[in-house]
Amino acid sequence: MSAPYDRGDGHPLLRERLENPVLSLDFAALPLHWQRTLLVFECERPRGLEEGPWLPVALRGAWGQQLLRQGEAGGADGDDPFGRPTARDVYFRTHAWVTPKLPVPRPFVIDLDGSGETLRVTLTLFGCAGFWRKEARDAMMAALANGLPLREGGAQRRPWPVRDLYWGRSETVDVTEAVPDRLVIRLKTPLCLRANGPLANDIDQLVMSLVNRLSGLARWQGVRIETDWSAWRELSKQLSIGWIDSTGYTLRRFSSAQPGRPIRFAGVLGRFSVEGPLRALMPLFVLGETAHAGARTALGFGAYEMLGW
User: Fold this and answer.
1) Spatial separation of the C-alpha atoms in residues 134 and 31, rounded to whole Å
2) What angle do CA 274, 108, 60 make, to 5 degrees?
3) Domain 182-308 classification at class level
4) How far apart are CA 164 and CA 152, in angstroms?
5) What is the pTM of this model?
6) Exposed (0-12), middle (13-18) or buried (19+): which is 247, by Cβ within 10 Å?
7) For residue range 136-189, what is the model confidence (pLDDT) as tens digits?
8) CA–CA separation, 13 and 83 (whole Å)
9) Is 108:124 a contact under the CB 8 Å cutoff?
10) Domain 12-22+35-170, what fold?
């Protein structure tokens, strides 16, 4: 079986849609055009499961393999009389570029939370990617039924029985009118601001990381961001961002795209504060809570919550 991630050219229909969005907006208006399809799986916690940031990575890999099997069972892309992309195409291929160096991101994130005997898996699909929600749902159900390792790097697998499944759609995101002088942000999963960067991520690059990611995900919403990009960089320099507490995290994973070769990457967990002129930045931080920040977001990295001010 080939890898779920295809390095070939993107699908022409998706490329046309992503390269030619119907709306042009600035970041202040983007929360009013932020459609999300949410698939929520309430699962029974397997006995002996050791939780950690490795778990969304394993879940993403298992989901990708099921999408691949799903596509192979349905035949080649060319079998569709209308030439429509498969769900694997949508979620695991690069179809367009915001700039020559900035690809349009993959239109999903996976979040894990829960307590006691229940684990909640939330699969968020952005914009038009929600059209393939049925295929995404079926592949995730198959991945959970097939089982996941009990610990990082472990070979023993246990199924995650699904107790309940529901889905919903959100069209907008609320942005508070109260503008704080200081934010405190807690990282729920490791933050990796540069895919190949050192463990000591430069937290001062957080704002520009959000600018890049959200402008790319906006394409899945049918939106092209029109803004003064240099002004965001200047605004980010006026902020004071500092760690309250932090710890490094390293992870090793294997990919069917590169069999036998371990892929290592790192991030930082903890809390940090942001102080300065935050009014223009609040839409970015609020949208970032739904979309994660930094690199490796498709692997669950970069999830955060704003604790208050």
Assistant:
1) 25
2) 105
3) alpha beta
4) 26
5) 0.91
6) exposed
7) 999 999 999 999 999 988 888 999 999 999 999 999 999 988 888 899 999 999
8) 8
9) yes
10) Alpha-Beta Plaits (3.30.70)
The 3 state secondary structure assigned to the chain is CCCCCECCCCCHHHHHHHHCCCEEECCCCHHHHCCEEEEEEEEECCCCCCCCCHHHHHHHHHHHHHHHHHHHHHCCHHHCCCCCCCHHHHHHECCCEEECCEECCCCEEEEEECCCCEEEEEEEEEHHHHHHHHHHHHHHHHHHHHCEECCCCCCCEECCCEEEEEEEEECCCCCCCCCCCEEEEEECCCECCCCCCCCCCCHHHHHHHHHHHHHHHHHHHCEEECCCHHHHHHHHHCCEEEEEEEEEEEEEEEECCEEEEEEEEEEEEEEEEEECCCHHHHHHHHHHHHHCCCCCHHHCCCCEEEEEC
Rounded Cα distance between 99 and 89, Å, is 21
CA distances from 209 to 26, 35, 106, 245 (A): 16, 21, 15, 21
Pairing of strands 157-158, 148-149: antiparallel
12-22+35-170 and 182-308 share one CATH topology? yes
Domains of the chain: which residue ranges?
Answer: 12-22+35-170, 182-308
* HSE of 189, CA atoms in CB hemisphere, 13 A: 29
Interatomic CA distance for residues 129 and 21, integer angstroms: 14
State the Cα–Cα distance between residues 268 and 249, nearest whole angstrom. Answer: 6
- Separation CA 135–CA 70 (nearest Å): 8
Per the structure block, which two tokens stand in for 233? Answer: 């960089």
Smallest CA-to-CA distance from 66 within 220, 217, 251, 256 is with: 256
Residue pLDDT, tens place only, 76-105: 444 667 788 999 999 999 999 999 999 999
Residue whose C-alpha is closest to residue 263's, from 291, 294, 293, 299: 299
